[in-house]
Design goal:
- With about 250 residues, this protein is of the alpha+beta class.
- It has a single domain, classed as Transferase(Phosphotransferase), domain 1 (Orthogonal Bundle), CATH 1.10.510.10.
- The protein has seven helices and seven strands.
- Helix 3 runs antiparallel to helix 4 and helix 4 runs antiparallel to helix 7.
- The termini are far apart.
- About 35% of the residues are buried.
Amino acid sequence: MRSAITRHLEHPSIVQPLALERYGNGYALVMPDDGAIALPDYWYGGVKILEPRSEQNLREFLIIAIQLAESLHYLNQKRIIHKDIKPANILIHAETKQVQLIDFSIASLLPKEQQELTNSNVLEGTLAYISPEQTGRMNRGIDYRTDFYSLGVTFFELLTGELPFTTDDAMELVHCHIAKMPRIGNREQGSKKRGFWNTNTPDANRHCNEVDGKKCRRALSKCIGFEARARKMSATMGNHRENWQV
């Protein structure tokens, strides 16, 4: 069972299952409930009203981003690839700001002698967030960097309020992941969701630039790159907290 992958992990951002029990004709994984909620509900919902020009909100983004980068770095050390990093699979406690990763249902554990997974041409994960190599169209193996691409897409969505590539056509979306780079900052079209870089007021972009815009863009650029080697340093981002301080 996939739950066995997380059974021996000890990290505050990894939720440990309590039990695996029969439920109808299948099984149910029993998870602890400490009051954490889905990240989108926190970021866009009633718990937190996002103000694009608020320095405090940018600080909170960096708090979340650092924890997530450190979590993926820890998984990399344990030779685990999550393969479905996205806001819906991230929980956050509204008071403590503790972030947690969930849903390791398609995660993989790399054998010690293996540096990457052989691409089986089977598409796993959520199409809007998966890396180019995870699409199964690049004849390339998958390693920890696939999770950092998905993390970059997650950061992009939190900061702009929209995904880097928006299309209802699955094949076009795969092509975008493989061949295009998202435009970071100064988006032409806004979103119903509110973010730091999608507001119609120029003051918000100027404020983000003054506070930490360059650092945010640097983090996104390190994560969202269709060449996996461009993401090779992303796993250590969380260890360089001084580069993230606002």
